[in-house]
Amino acid sequence: MGLSTTDWLLKPVQSVNRAWTPEFSLREVAMSLLLEPYTLRQLTLRNRIAVSPMCQYSSVDGLANDWHLVHLGSRAVGGAGLVISEAMAVTPDGRITPEDLGLWNDEQIEPLQRITRFINAQGAVAGIQLAHAGRKASTWRPWLGKHGSVPLNEGGWTPVGPSAIAFDPQHTAPVQLSETQIKELIEAFVESARRALTAGFKVVEIHAAHGYLLHQFL
């Protein structure tokens, strides 16, 4: 009987100390607490190493793929206690770029479950960052060497924000959110958080920095 494309990757859990420290134990160094378990409410991490969100700009229609499995899964194999996904948009127009991950519909749950299963199998905890880019949405992937908004005829969209003030002259001016739209966005964050739990994430982080939507209200 054959194995699936990922079954053979699920075990064994890799041991940082056994695999990478043949001559001495990392627990003997001055920063030994770094490798001690840490309990956050009812959740215990195997150590205090957390991988922060890193945007990959490698998705189609907000769906996770093999790239994201390797990117996040390898950090779990490497021994991190907590692995947090890149910013996932709660609505399509909340993406930083058209290639961002998202969690605005149920179809996006299953590809993420494959990733969280792998992370869990390696002894790490899967976390997720939920976000909305606001007026900084609909931009080019950074390695393309372009600045500003992606045109509508090239897959971009008109961003939204607290006011109709563009981020800079190269960015499209956003549409000012109405009170009703603000309430809808709050609900979008709630629904995305519910999907995140269904997808197997145990830590949910709300992105409210770097000039994105929630930060724009401050």
Automatic annotation (TrEMBL):
Annotated GO MF terms: FMN binding; NADP binding; NADPH dehydrogenase activity
PANTHER family the UniProt entry points to: NADPH DEHYDROGENASE C23G7.10C-RELATED (PTHR43303:SF4)
Keyword list, A-Z: Flavoprotein, FMN, NADP, Oxidoreductase
Cited Gene3D superfamilies: Aldolase class I
Boundaries of every NADH:flavin oxidoreductase/NADH oxidase N-terminal domain copy: 34-218
Protein name: Xenobiotic reductase
Cofactor(s) annotated in UniProt: FMN
Top-level lineage group: Bacteria
Pfam families, alphabetized: Oxidored_FMN (PF00724)
InterPro entries: Aldolase_TIM, OxRdtase_FMN_N, YqjM-like
